[in-house]
Design goal:
heterodimer; A: alpha/beta; eight-stranded mixed sheet; globular; B: alpha/beta; four-stranded mixed sheet; 12 helices; 16 strands; binds thiamine diphosphate; binds iron/sulfur cluster
Chain lengths: 305, 393
């Protein structure tokens, strides 16, 4: 970007190079192109991305148009991490060790159908960055419940907001990956670009399998005003519904500390997918968030920062 | 150098000779020892490849697609349920134009469980767009893997190839194999250099969303490449013969077919048995021949049609069954021969590891000779060797 009068006054802490061009086909207010934009600002041009089915396969454009300025490999739904392993192996064989391989997949493609391949890649110690952009449902097929859909959310397969099987919360994918043996794990949110970029840059410098859980608002699926996408994302962090933290060298730490959490209701009430929740339901969600958050605080405390 | 080895080891040796860059494996009987041999060769430093232990065949094929995109020569092997689990990625490999070479130790698919040989797994994948080559013996497996890379990586082909060896019959049977010298293989097989690799200096999207306005054209290009592959397969074999002195008859080998009263079309190891029976019958003055169906995809319709000039009566042996009107091989041979006036019959057998014995082939030839004499077949399809209570088998 050229410096103009107005930009000169600010000191940009994030790289100004753009790797996503105008012309992508995400819905207004979608968090995903933002997330990829931040990711690439952090990683730079020596990056190869591979993506499965999902909005990620649609957003970059329809052949022959393409809105991303790094190599991009599309493939089937459940194989993201396996394809990453293959790309990395071939790069290593060719001595190209300075290229970052990013497996980029939705929550459904990660916590459900792609979990086996992801677990396998971590087990194989693939030196790559796996980013799960979490819009908390199968959005590309029209808002179906995934293993990452939060408790109480409306989707087309949980029309009353209740899971038919049982009430339960999001699969704890980062915990699962930590148990699986990742060397670095972190949550990031498009509402906090500085933190997002810093986290990715840190991950880039670490060898081995790294897992990033990226909060990615979906106005279409969350039934909310696209203009509120960032506000909702910020509230998710401030209420503790989506805390920003990292796991490294066996230790947990907050990357964005929240001194005083806001009530989760503020977060829920901005989204149509939660509008059917009764005050009692909201209290239940609040209790769940509290429990999870306190468990995390305990882990951070035990890590002895 | 002459060595004794089974077809699995022959396949693994071929991968090494081909200087494969990346392998990804997952065990399944009767393919497993291919994967084990690769692991051993890589670990001992005899083979300079990246070796990936996968958590499923689906992931193995996925990983190779990724590696191949970067420009690596890639190799894996599978059988049966593993091949079926790969199905989605087999299709993807074709659409992505990845020249992956994969031996398949052909085997039954359950249930109930059965680990033994037949062709149903590979026949089920015939519409994926993979080229499929059936091998008769262990030497042919080794040689065909080398030829397969030549064809698959040809810029005008760029399609994956299955090299099919009969489960247990070849995969676990030791035979004499002439292992070519590395220097000769290097002369035959140049390194893989894709035209459009994944390259950070020249970023592109590979496999992105395509609308109906171009999809048909892309499928048409795959069809065209399959057609080009016919010539490329013949060229690859001719050059192979010039360097190594061996060849396998191209798409279809005609064994004593010229003046035959009846010919049996057969793929895989049973072709060897059939040839031997044909020799004996010829010695007795019975004029039978064997047409070895070596390349099943692309289907050698032209070569099959030539049979109509050599004989009146044509039998097809299917080691699988496509539920419907006869086995897949039979139906394809029949459609190639339509309007030639050939008398035809399908023989289904050798399923789930049941031996295809000399006696079995004799029964088919006798039946075919009867049909040749009568000028018409008694029925279209016969399951041979069924325990039908007649005491015949
Ligand atoms: C094997 C298989 N099953 C189902 C589908 C259909 N499908 C395509 S995209 C998609 C949803 C993807 O959801 P997610 O991974 O959460 O990404 P999002 O669409 O939310 O971006 C599904 C189910 C598929 N492509 N492949
Ligand atoms: S459906 Fe949701 S995730 Fe998909 S492009 Fe639209 S806003 Fe983004």
């Amino acid at each position: 970007m050229e410096s103009t009068e107005s930009t000169k006054r600010y000191k940009f802490t994030i790289p100004q190079e753009e790797y996503i061009t105008p012309g992508h086909s995400a819905c207004p207010g979608c968090g995903e192109p933002l997330a990829m934009r931040y990711l690439l600002k952090a990683l730079g041009p020596n990056t190869v991305i591979n993506v499965p089915a999902g909005c990620c396969a649609v957003i970059p454009g329809v052949w022959p148009r393409y809105a991303v300025k790094v190599p991009f490999v599309d493939h089937a739904f459940e194989c993201t991490a396996a394809v990453s392993s293959g790309i990395k192996a071939a790069l290593e064989k060719k001595g190209m060790d300075d290229v970052t391989v990013v497996g980029w997949a939705g929550d459904g493609g990660t916590v459900d159908i792609g979990l086996q391949a992801l677990s396998g890649a971590v087990d194989r110690d693939t030196d790559f960055l796996y980013v799960m952009y979490d819009n908390e449902a199968y959005m590309n097929t029209g808002i179906q419940c995934s293993g990452a859909t939060p408790c109480g959310a409306w989707t087309t397969t949980t029309p009353g907001g209740k899971h038919i099987q049982q009430r339960r919360d999001k699969k704890k994918i980062l915990d699962m990956m930590i148990a699986n043996g990742i060397v670095y794990g972190a949550t990031v949110s498009v509402a906090y670009p500085d933190d997002f970029i810093r986290t990715i840059q840190k991950a880039k410098g670490i060898k081995g399998p790294k897992f990033i859980h990226a909060y990615s608002p979906c106005p279409s699926g969350w039934r909310m005003d696209p203009r509120k996408a960032i506000e909702v994302s910020r509230l998710a962090v401030r209420t503790g519904a989506f805390p920003l933290y990292e796991f490294h060298n066996g230790k947990y730490s907050f990357t964005k500390e929240i001194k005083k959490r806001k009530p989760v209701e503020e977060y829920l009430r901005l989204q149509g997918r939660f509008k059917h929740l009764t005050p009692a339901d909201v209290a239940e969600v609040q209790a769940l968030v509290d429990r999870e958050y306190e468990a995390l605080v305990a882990k951070v405390g035990a890590s002895g920062r | 150098m002459i060595e004794m080895m089974n077809a699995n080891y022959a396949a693994a040796r071929a991968a090494k000779l081909a200087r494969v860059d990346v392998t990804a494996v997952y065990p399944i009987t009767p393919q497993t020892s291919i994967s084990e041999k690769l692991a051993e060769m890589v670990q001992k430093g005899e083979m300079d490849a990246k070796f990936m232990m996968m958590e499923s065949e689906h992931s193995a094929m996925s990983a190779l697609i990724g590696a191949s995109y970067v420009g690596a020569r890639t190799f894996t092997a599978t059988s049966s349920h593993g091949l079926a689990l790969m199905h989605e990625m087999l299709m993807w490999a074709v659409g992505a134009r990845r020249p992956i070479v994969m031996p398949v130790a052909a085997r039954t698919i359950g249930g109930p469980w059965n680990i033994w040989g037949e062709h149903h797994d590979v026949i089920t994948e015939r519409d994926t767009g993979w080229l499929q080559i059936f091998c008769e013996n262990n030497q042919e497996v080794l040689d065909t893997v080398l030829m397969a890379y030549r064809v698959a990586e040809d810029p005008e082909v760029m399609l994956p190839i299955m090299v099919i060896e009969d489960g247990f019959i070849l995969s676990h049977t030791v035979d004499i194999v002439d292992v070519p010298e590395q220097e000769k293989v290097d002369r035959y097989l140049p390194p893989f250099k894709p035209e459009y690799p994944v390259d950070v200096k020249n970023p592109m999207r590979h496999g992105g969303l395509m609308m109906p306005d171009w999809w048909t054209e892309f499928r048409y290009l795959i069809y065209q490449s399959q057609e080009v592959a016919r010539t490329k397969l013949l060229e690859a074999e001719k050059e192979f013969e010039a360097i190594f002195g061996r060849s396998y008859g191209g798409m279809m080998e005609y064994y004593k077919c010229d003046d035959a009263d009846a010919v049996l079309v057969v793929a895989g190891s049973a072709a060897g048995t059939a040839k031997e029976v044909a020799d004996r019958y010829r010695a007795e003055g019975k004029k039978v021949g064997v047409a070895k169906l070596r390349v099943f995809r692309p289907f050698p319709a032209e070569e099959v049609r030539r049979l109509a000039d050599m004989t009146t009566t044509i039998g097809v042996f299917d080691r699988s069954y496509t539920y419907g009107d006869g086995g897949a091989m039979f139906n394809e041979v029949r459609s190639a021969l339509q309007s030639t006036g050939s008398v035809m019959k399908d023989y289904v057998g050798g399923l789930g590891g049941r031996d295809v014995t000399v006696k079995f082939i004799e029964w088919i030839f006798d039946d075919l000779l009867r049909i040749a004499e009568a000028g018409k077949a008694d029925r279209t399809v016969e399951w041979v060797g069924l325990k039908d209570g007649t005491g015949r088998w």
